[in-house]
Amino acid sequence: ASVPYSHTERETFLAEHCRPGVVLKSASCDIFQNLAFEDWIHAHVDVEKRSILFMCRNRPAVVIGRHQNPWQECNVPLARERGIPVARRRSGGGTVFHDLGNVNLTFFSSRKRYDRQRNLRIVTRALRQLSPNLDVHATERFDILLNKQFKISGTAAKLGRTGAYHHCTLLCSADRALLSATLRSACAAGIRSNATPSVAAPVRNLRDEDPTLNCDAVMEAVASQYYADFGLSAPAVVVDPTDELSHPGIRRITQELQAWDWVFGKTPAFSLDTSFEVQCEACDTKVNLTVGVKSGAIETCSIESPQDWLPPAMCRELSGLMVGSRFRPSDMAVIFTAFLRANPQSHELENKMHILCEKVVALM
Amino acid sequence: MATRVAFRCMLASFPSALTPRRLPLRVCAHSRALGTSSRAAAALKFTDKHEWVRVEDGVGTVGISNFAQEALGDVVYCSLPEVGTKLNQMDEFGALESVKAASELYSPLTGEVTEVNQDLAENPGLVNKSCYKDGSQGAGA
Fold this sequence. Notes:
Chain A: Belongs to the LplA family. The structure holds 2 protein chains of 2 kinds. Chain A is of the alpha+beta class. Chain A is built from 13 helices and 17 strands. Helix content of chain A is about 35%, strand content about 25%. In chain A, the strands form 4 sheets. A 7-stranded mixed sheet of chain A has the order 1-14-2-3-7-12-11, with helices on both faces. A 4-stranded antiparallel sheet of chain A has the order 13-15-16-17. In chain A, helix 5 crosses helix 8 and helix 12 runs antiparallel to helix 13. By secondary structure, chain B is an alpha+beta fold. In chain B, a hairpin with a 4-residue loop joins strand 2 and strand 3. The radius of gyration of chain B is 14 Å and the shape is globular. At the A-B interface, strand 11 of A face strand 5, strand 7 and strand 8 of B.
């Protein structure tokens, strides 16, 4: 069982017992708060003497790796529409979908003790404690597979100066329909970049295999197994990632992680080459869009439209205006509005501009 | 004269003190073959974080050591600063991602970046194959 402690109680508890390993469980289900907590531990806690296991669950969110391209990895407009935040981790690795049916585990240790396979053995052992006939094993890629087929866990890691952390997901009862829809990019085919790609895999929920494997049971089992590894037995300590007093500076970290400049602006330079269909005199025709994006800002842009849909001069001028602005719906809206205000057009052309704007924004 | 001052500062108080004048910082690597020659080896200074620095005519060249690249595993992503970026010693100046983990690169010198090895963005594997030459990270002044 997890026992809530006040900050002072917890510190005393930890100091007195000098545990070589501690399990912390988050009171928050907010992806940014929990990522900030990881950051804070990584930056402030001396892991030479004590290792830490941090556990949490998050409300629906897409989490991309440090060097990934969100537009390549998920459907950003759909996520926005559904109120699902996109977050960028500080660690490497691929894209995962979090929701309350997914357990997140972060193993903090010194660089010397950094051992991902060992951590994953703790997880698989814990699962087999709950469900003895469960066929789960960790691969060379540090995935955990169920029945040698289905991915139930993915891994990412960060090496710091003195400490390191390894975190992984665990699919217990996630919404797989939402997962698939959100992780399907609208424009990946047209993207050229050297961002790290994800490796897609068929997934399964543990609960589908064994109904007793719910998140709470799994977290408790992993915590026990972790402590057992140190020859200990203890409850997990509940932590509050919004507690600035106990974790000075954590609010600023949370805000940094939420900033557009981090989530989207840190995307490695990429080009997007795509086209969309527009109606032209009762037949369909294509408009081509090519953009070069660096640090989230449009560096180059070209819009090609059939002459009878939009005049080339207009396309050129619009492209020119887009350069320098962010690859972001709100920025596009401002540009298109300003353009139309400065260059009033016929009703027909204005409509086409609106359609163009909609199509462009639907990519972002 | 100025170069000797810079060297002396580096030798005396590396990696903690800041050099009194801005030192050209060029991040680039030497070939592993060269690394085995004693002359090249003598010219490299290593930080405790396994970055190496070579200073020549007031220009410092930075890369990561063979030990570091082996410890990292296959590098799959490398990001480096823009030319013109001003860095202080210990500033984060880039990032690497390998099969092992993501990790930051910290500047061993204070200076201004004058040259960056662009090949690494396209071909991050060079960090492993040729950490002392083609896989070096750049130059600074």
